[in-house]
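Dear colleague,

Thank you for sharing your sequence with our group. We've completed the structure prediction you requested, and as agreed, I am returning the results in plain text so they can be pasted directly into your records. Please verify that the sequence below matches your submission; if there's any discrepancy, let me know and we will rerun it promptly.
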Amino acid sequence: MRRIAARLTILFLLATVAGGWAALAAGVGFSGSVGLETTFTPIPPLSYNIESELSLGLRVADFGFSSKTAFDLVGFRSQELGVSVELGPVRMADTLLFDPYFSRNALCLDTSIISVTLGLDLILAYTDPDYSVGAVLELSSRVANEFSITTLTGFGAQDLVNLLEGVEAPFSHDLLSLFVHLATFYGPPPVLSVTIVPGLYFEEELVRLEVDTSGILLSSTTWLSWTGFEQEILEFGYRFEEPKIAFLTALTVDDTFAISALHFVLDAEIEGVVVSSWTTFSQPLVPPIPVVFSGQGFAVSFELLGARITTETDFDGSFLFERQLVAIEATVDPVAFSSLTAFDAGGFSGQWVTASVTFSGVALYTRAAFDSGGIGEVVFGFTFTF
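Please find the predicted structure tokens below.
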């Protein structure tokens, strides 16, 4: 199987190169990017690891190609290859992943007709000790950016919400953008993908409805499996324009049709100051109380002396202080700087610092993370776009 995968990869690369040169020969302009990132990670007590990732992206008219290669002191770690083609309303994309051996091949087909999108993902993945095939069918429609419906049906595939960027409650995610933004300081975002399981049988269906009109916010996300109803998250709220303020309630119902979680979200912007908060009630371990207080968080963002300052304060289910985050972001062209400092009940718990400079299509950047025990990792990298 590995020999077959290697031959398919060689043919894939040859076809990609041939297609790219053919387009260039026809006089079609192109764009692309090249990047290299190196990560130094100490390994206590006296060792360390160095990992590098080389990325390449090319775009020629309606044809695109991407490549990511990772290796460390031990040797080759992973390779991801992607190619996409747009033919009118039809888009085709194929992604190959080796880590270090063949791990996944995903073929995606999408087409849009008026306001309706149809999609099909065919995925071949390694599921120890064999290979399995999964398929995901997508049907979605949006009307005037006010009403949308999305259905995802997985055969041999689970965790379909990862195709929606892992967002289980869309309006809560939007209103809590300050919390989401602070989470990006911790490093690169996780790679989200559906889980392939043995057997090409019906595994999961996700149905999402969204309504955003006249200030009214409504959404419903329902999970179904071959055994029936699994979970549903209901959101309902209202958004004012003047003053700019929004409030939302999210209700989670489990497979026993009992309320397992309740979330209250508030987001407001007054004179350039953005304030967001969430309050969560969840199902206790001991019934009969349906839900009890389980946590609360507050975030504030404002401009000060040309810098953007964002803070987050979290409390646990016992109403005790849990965490404090303080982020500072400043840009003085062509230099950008950001810093995130974290505190917990015991004091300082970590800091993440990023600096970058951009000129003539080249971006140089560095990131460092450390805590009370010392340096956690140091990253150096560059990206060149043309």
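Summary note from our side: DSSP finds three helices and 24 strands in the chain.

Kind regards,
the structure core
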